[in-house]
Amino acid sequence: EVQLVESGGGLVKPGGSLRLSCAASGFTFSSYSMNWVRQAPGKGLEWVSSISSSSSYIYYADSVKGRFTISRDNAKNSLYLQMNSLRAEDTAVYYCARVFSSGWLDYWGQGTLVTVSS
Amino acid sequence: DIQMTQSPSSVSASVGDRVTITCRASQGISSWLAWYQQKPGKAPKLLIYAASSLQSGVPSRFSGSGSGTDFTLTISSLQPEDFATYYCQQANSFPPYTFGQGTKLEIK
Prior knowledge:
The structure holds 2 protein chains of 2 kinds. Chain A is built from no helices and 11 strands.
């Protein structure tokens, strides 16, 4: 069974940092591109970042470029999102999601809540 | 970036009804469109990909159609578990993936 489990969310002050993790199991993690998608409270879905299976290709939304860093450790079946210079508008539930075929997100974690507030 | 616009933003319907949700892309995306279902407090679930392909395990009452700029998600006979919010997503022009704003399907 495919499972994605996020962790690392919490309350952080504006300007602070946080590192999210996503532990994958039930599939060959090293064969799939992975994404982070977020959802602000009561709002829609926003793609945040993507990393290819071997970390050769990395992409970011303009809203987080220069502040967030996506990475992965295929030996540990884990995906990460380092978030720096956090702003109030980064407050959201952050989901990790597996990419199926050419851009479809077929498995999602349960999400981890990041709250940026003083 | 390609903008995705869903209509309506919300819809009320009864169990057994046929419901159609529309998604329009700001430019042509061929068939690079997916539909997701999200229930409160839960992660999104992939229903349809490549505009009309049913994801494994998804009931056949869900169907998708369209290409280019205009797409539809149809639920042929609403069941109680279908009341949720639905999102479309384009994967033609990446980055970024872009989502529609969502359509909330409520019980009448």
